[in-house]
Amino acid sequence: SLHMAVYPAYVALVAHVAFGALQSEGKDYLWPMVGAAALAVFGTHVWAAVREAPGDHPPSLIEKNGRVRLVAVDRITDGRAVTVTLGRERVAVFRNGTQISCVSNVCRHQMGPLGEGRIIDGCITCPWHGYQYDPVTGCSPPPFTERIETWNVTVEDGYVWADPEPNPLGTPAEVGTVPEAGS
Prior knowledge:
It is a single chain. The chain is α+β, with helices and mostly antiparallel strands. The chain has two domains: about 5-55, no CATH class; about 65-175, Rieske Iron-sulfur Protein (3-layer Sandwich). About 20% of the residues lie in helices and about 25% in strands. Strands 3, 4, 5, 9 and 12 form a five-stranded antiparallel sheet that branches. The protein has a four-stranded antiparallel sheet with strand order 1-2-11-10, with no helix packed on it. The longest helix is centred in the first third of the chain and has 23 residues, at about 30-50.
């Protein structure tokens, strides 16, 4: 996507400036600084990947009526999500009051982790840039047109169960319902 082209452009710009400065006489002290900066950027990306991996709940092998068990409902905080693996996809299971929905964990804007976001004004909100999606349809509110995958879910026996295949983009998903506290 066009937004992802920012990264190679940024690398090219930094490399252009760094190598231009490094060609000047008497600037040998810049080599370790440029190397350290490159290692720091690379290292923080590796650190983030390693740190994020254990946060996922492992894929479930338990199936029932063609659906896969994802996570216990009581593990999902209201207005937040739990990230799980469904097949080969990382999905975010959100709780919005008594409603449970399952969407792709990847924001269409710049591939942000939706599962680290929260529900604001009834919409899933990406923590990186605030992009929003309807938890039922996966569509961004107008005038935006981005859409993310949704999965049909049910709540049974205290667990969220999902169809293994996503719905077509923009299709309203079946959402699970959690009984209200005290009922």
